[in-house]
Amino acid sequence: MADDFEKAVFYAFAQPGTAPADVSARAGAALEAARAGPQAWALCLAHLRSSAHAEVKFWCLQTLHGLVGERYGELAPDQRDALKSALVGTALGDPGLAPFLRAKLAQVLVGVACREFPSAWPAFFQDLIATLPAGPPAADLFCRVLVAVDEDVVSLEVPRSAAEARASMAFKDAMRDLALPDVAAAATQLLAASHAADPPAAAALLRALARYVHWVDIGLVANDRFVPLLFGVLGSRDEGLRAAAAGVLIEIVGKRMEAEPKLALIQQLGVVPEAAKWAEGLPGAEDGDAGSELAAKYARLLACLATEILEAVKKIENAVLSMAAVGLAVEDEAGREAEASARGACALLDALFPALLRALGGGGEEVVAAVLPFLLSYVGWVRAAARRKGNAGGGEAGAGADGATTPARGAAHLPAILEAAAAAARYPADSAVPTGAPAGPAARAAAEEEEAAMAERRQDLFTLFRNAARLDPAAALAFVRSALSAVLFAPDAPWQGVELAVALLYQLGEAPSDADLRPGTGALAELALGVMRSDHPAAAHRLVALGVLEACVRYARVLAAPGVAAGTLPHVVAGFLGARGLGHADPGVQRRAAYLLCRLTKALRGPLRGAAQGVLAALAPHLAAIAASPAAELPGPKAAPGRGPGGAALTAVDDRLYAFEAAGLLLGQEEMEAGEQAAWLAAVLQPLTRQIEEALGEGPGPSNGSAALVPPALMVQQALEGITRVAKGFSLRLCTELRPALGAEFTRALRCAIQVPRRLPGHRALRARLLSFLHRMVETLGPASLPFMPEVLQALVREGADACELADALILLNQLMSRFRDGMAPLIRDILPVLLSCVHAVLGPDWDWSGAAVPGSPPAASAETAREKEELQRAFFACLLCVATMGLADQLLAAGSATLDGALGPLLQAGGGHTDVTTLHRLLSVWMEPSKESGAAITTFAVEKFAGEVCLRCMLGGQSRLDPGDASSIGLLAEAAAGLRLVDEHAREELARHLLRHGLDSRSVFLGWTVKDVPGLASDSVLPNQLGWPAAASTQLLQLIADGDHKVLRDFLRQALQQQPRPAAAKLD
Q: Residue 1012 pLDDT more than 60?
């Protein structure tokens, strides 16, 4: 029956809620008191021996581990011996001890060793070895102690303090001197005795030994006794034991050594002939399970072996090359020795290559991941060797794509690498990817998961394929031609083979030469035309359809060649518009086909001109379907628009709208007959315009019954985006000068669209689409769009508009001002007062325009609101700058004092906070021109507020945030200097009076004063007397301003800033 101590442990280990909280708290306090007491050692040892409960034993071991680390010094020698005996006795005398308790016990024993080895307990490891005759528990303790020593003492992967690192090194050095030979010998004997009788124990021993190989003497494991045992274990029936043996061999082969000793070690081990046998299949894959853990372990061994041999070859070659690079002569004998070593190493690689390629071509995910890095490195080595030979003017094999010559020694494996990479990139026969759209959510999830995994796998595989193809283009072309021939002329070929062959052709087209793409003579052109003209039944599969479409776009240059378009282009376009493209059953294929059709149209706009009417007629039903079926939210990850076959994830936006852009590209050509062009444009745009009218309640109602189920905002969005995409194909000149009837069609659409913000207000996504549409109309219609803009802007700048709406309106207004300049004067005069009023209302009277306020950590909603307001401020200042630079500053001046104050007040704050000085400067440069009669108020503002406050006091005062050493601060000082020069040019007397007021007489001032002569500069004043400057400084400033040397004035201000005492300067953000 459990005593009170054990009950306390039970309560402490109880799951939350199974015991009263106060009871658990009292139990924890009691255990903590017992741990801190002087009898903690005895208490733990007693219950470790006597308790039948694992929880109690674990608490005792955990407490002992802590006590050993904190209070071991308080034990007498006999108590320490009793502790060691108890720990070893428990491990050996209790065969039923749970594995986690055995691991904790070994950890405690190693904690003791950390305090006593080697000084007080030099025979720690020998005493441990002496227990091995006791049987399996002793062998288990031996293995667990080795693991604990690695994890708690010597491992470099564990972060340690400087003192702990020194202790770790001392422990390792003592092990090398006193223990490692005995440990290695004992491990060898134990392995020999247990690998047949107790495979799990032998596997645990090997896993423990693998932790030590990288830092022990190599002779302890690479010897005539241990290595034969390892190879014997490799033939065991137990997979865990075989995997552990392979892990030890990986550590032996991967041990850091120089090149020559490494090659000698590999040959001594005899592992290459053994690994070469795996050309028929990796161990562990005998039952067809190419992705088993054992096969993956053997693949890592194979890859490690090949990598080490290759690295040794590189070191040998680099040693010779480095000596030659610095002008040192390489003796003939040394050169022959290096060549012989490299040749021998390459022979080892040649022996391994069949097994490597078999693993790549027929392995599972982990197997492929293990061997692929080596093959990439190998091809890179061959490429580097090819470049060296090319630079030397020699060569033994064919020229690669980069102009280098591939050495025959490395090129021999390239065709096999191409074949293996292709085999690894093939979809499995039992693929879950359906021919059309997935049948349900589960099927879709399975298909997307498989496609994502294959896309990730193919990234490196196709990189390997392309790199090898560049080195041996002829072999790559021959392989792809063979792959295409095998499937395109076999109607029953599985879709996996067709998809792979097309994907490989796509990879070869990444950077082809003009000769390769020349129809009639170019090899790639021949292959591409074969794919484009094919009608293979497998093309109905969604992945094959996508691959063919991608290949058509990549090889569009072939179709542009004279004599090719007439025979092949109609078939290609039919593929895009038919059941393998926009008409495919899978929505993902439809979206991608629309995007690729747009790209194809851009590339072949000229060749398609003659077939434009036929293309438009075939495209029209798709356009109608796309317009009437907006997608609120599409599944699937976002894909980059140029992603090729095999890696084409489905996009999360409705790329079907690219079909409208393709239509616009076809229609917007000047060479098209005017009447046909106008008729087709009306046929495309008028249904979209009617869709907007119906959604806004102005038309007769949806003609499509399903459209009535779609929210009106989505219908309007879809139609607006369609019109926008169509307009991209039309130039301003075509729509306004050459064929105004085309512009009239877009004008009708614009007239309809401007009703949207009033009929459907407050819809952010719709507003974004509308603004995109308006920006496009400005580019397409030019001045013809201007009469419609006041109504749009008034709808956007409405009462209650939020920060985002106002920012959007400001951006649109900026585009209009940039495009039409002074033609915007009436609109600016009318809209600015309303716009400024709304901006101030949204930002509020307490808004800090200077940007000096540093917010704390507001909640997410408040942070988002603040971000939107900051965006509004930036858009507002950009609008005012546009007013100043586009010849519209007078409209602001004429808008009334309230509007002027609403603009200049924020600008003044922003200038004082170093946020925006440029806009004020631009406005004043217009208002102070001699031809303008701006009045005394503007002059006073320029002198006192702009020059005095912004350019001097805020730049140089005690609260200035400028740093004289910061480049951005120096830039602001340059702006201040330019501002002072501007004011001086137009109001010199007023500026001088302001700078020298309060009775200072400029006639009595020494004009040769420099800043260095000033003993100190005060702070906290207006300007300049309130800055504390003496009369000489003020007059010198006036003199420099009048001299007109911008750089000298800037440097003067910088020196003044350097001498100005102020709080710690911070760099300007």
A: no
